[in-house]
Specification:
Largest sheet: 7 strands, mixed
Radius of gyration: 20 Å
Helix content: 10-25%
């Protein structure tokens, strides 16, 4: 196909406001690809902080997405869950369906090594979950649940649900997914994970993984672990401060509170793993059609600016929202 003169991209142009902007599109070089987007996924956790201009200044450099344009707080082109088809490039990649850590944009040119070809068993519409699955994998690595342990995940958003889904497949692990919204029980059931609301959460847990994005969820997690138990914090609060009960049982039971963040691989894996290997693993784990339950809605790209305030608003119950490109 011929290279379009321009591409259309979603930009956060000011706090809580986004718009589609046209920009020049260059022809791909010898080691580059032209990708025509099919879908992109909205990663509600991090993208809501970006959309609402709540990225702390200290994290501006660390939180840059691989192909981000612009700087925090705004204007910025942000995102990292794009699935598309190679329209121009090396013969071995031509017409392949690929995943790329690219913002919401209908056409883009990237280095050939910036994409991964989807496994044959993974449909394009599900591959938008790859970045969330990658985050979940890193969280499970950091939590290191062992055979037979009692484990809870607090927060049944996309990442929390994926962490619970992965942990439940470890033999002998007694897994509970906890959320304040009882409607999330249906999601847990589809993923084959036991569910409860906070008032019915089990105590004396070996490990609690927190992914609710709310301080109350982290406080709950600290109350559920037993002696020498560990709490893995996967939520990112942006500019928010969190008050925690670090007296009492936190000290007497020698609890551990540890951060998990997808930007770094666990130290023990770094001699053998890199980001590409981890993303390849994430894509390979998306063959299960039950994971389609994590896609809570789909919209045309043209409608993204209009629906973004609702998707990223405080009352949103969206899981992964999928953007469809014409």
């Amino acid at each position: 196909m011929s290279v379009p003169d321009t591409a259309t991209a979603f930009w956060v142009t000011r706090e809580a406001f986004g718009e589609l902007k046209h920009e020049p599109l260059t022809s791909p070089g010898e080691s580059e690809l032209l990708v025509r987007a099919l879908y992109s996924g909205v990663s509600r956790g991090t993208e809501s902080l970006v959309f609402n201009a709540r990225v702390p200044e200290s994290e501006y450099a660390r939180m840059r997405a691989p192909f981000q344009t612009g700087d925090f707080p705004t204007p910025v082109k942000y995102g990292y869950c794009s699935v598309g088809r190679v329209a121009q490039g090396p013969q071995e990649l031509l017409n392949k369906t690929v995943f790329c850590l690219y913002p919401h944009q209908n056409h883009y040119v990237v280095p050939a090594d910036a994409v991964l070809v989807l496994p044959e068993q993974v449909p394009a519409y599900r591959a938008v979950l790859a970045a969330n699955m990658e985050t979940a994998i890193n969280g499970v690595w950091d939590a290191n649940p062992m055979l037979g342990e009692r484990v809870c995940v607090v927060g049944a958003g996309v990442v929390g649900a994926l962490v619970a889904y992965l942990c439940a497949q470890i033999p002998g692990v007694d897994m509970r997914l906890i959320d304040i919204n009882p409607a999330r029980e249906a999601l847990a059931a589809q993923l084959g994970v036991a569910f409860c609301t906070p008032e019915h959460a089990p105590t004396d847990q070996d490990c609690v993984i927190h992914a609710s994005g709310h301080p109350d969820g982290l406080r709950l997690g600290l109350s559920l672990v037993g002696n020498e138990g560990r709490v893995i914090e996967m939520s990112w609060f942006g500019k928010g401060d969190v008050a925690l009960p670090l007296g009492g049982a936190f000290h007497s039971q020698r609890l551990t509170l540890r951060a998990s963040q997808v930007g770094q691989l666990p130290a023990v894996l770094q001699p053998r793993w890199d980001y590409r290997r981890r993303l390849t693993l994430a894509l390979s784990l998306l063959t299960d059609q039950r994971l389609d339950a994590l896609i809570s809605g789909e919209s045309d790209f043209a409608d993204f600016p209009a629906i973004a305030p609702q998707l990223f608003g405080p009352g949103s119950t969206a899981l992964c929202h999928r953007i469809r490109y014409p």
